[in-house]
Amino acid sequence: MILKRAREIDTMVEAAQINREALEAVEKLVRPGVSTAELDEAAEDAIVSRGARPAFKGYRGSSASIAPFPGTLCTSVNEVVVHGFPDRRPLVGGDIVSVDIGLFYKGYAADMAKTYAVGSVAPRIQALLKATERSLYAGIEAAQPGNRLGDVAAAVQRTAEAAGFWVVREFVGHGIGSSFHESPDVPNYGRAGTGPRLRPGLVLAIEPMVTESKTDVKILSDGWTAPTVNGSWAAHFEHTVAITEAGPRVLTIAGAPIYDPMLGGARGA
User: Fold this and answer.
1) For position 216, which CATH number holds?
2) DSSP run (H or E) holding 165
3) In which domain, by residue range, is 77 found?
């Protein structure tokens, strides 16, 4: 567990704000007929033009036999949970696409994800998106200094499962800082009151991945793309969050506010 000094978190705020602005540029393009490759190109332009570097492009996994990740974005459509490759196939009305975006700026990383409906989607899928996003904010709310990592995991799981959905076990969130993946792992399921204590200076990428129904996840032959085994559709939402004495500070929201559930969202830092 690597704790950051205040000046390091200030730099991570800069990185996170560039990341958010790049995702907003992508969001404006999501519609039927647009390809995920076009989204990827827009993201890379937005990142590079701000003096940052895409974190995913060229990223190597745990095996030397797997080719580096080819895109600036992970674009995961419908039943793909995470790590989908951008390609030239057009999105179709009724699809969903999870966009995961990360970068480095001044030596520090930021990470963020959001799942978008492409046009109108089925009510069950709209409910999946809403429940996954709610589970993210439940996890953020639980990320209070002095709480334990299991409190975050349990809050995510409780919120998603109460809505009738399944939390993915195969992939988790992570610490983040000068390295993109740092300790600790941040599961989206678990028992409250367990795990390491959350200390000011810790920065986490909290990222629920939730599916329509209980299912395993497999990895395709490309070594990256991870769809559900039973074809259930999946949603993915993520923020980069710093633990502070005042509470969780959401770096990938405009202004990097402290999360305040009493105000129904966030207050200025």
Assistant:
1) 3.90.230.10
2) none
3) 6-59+69-267
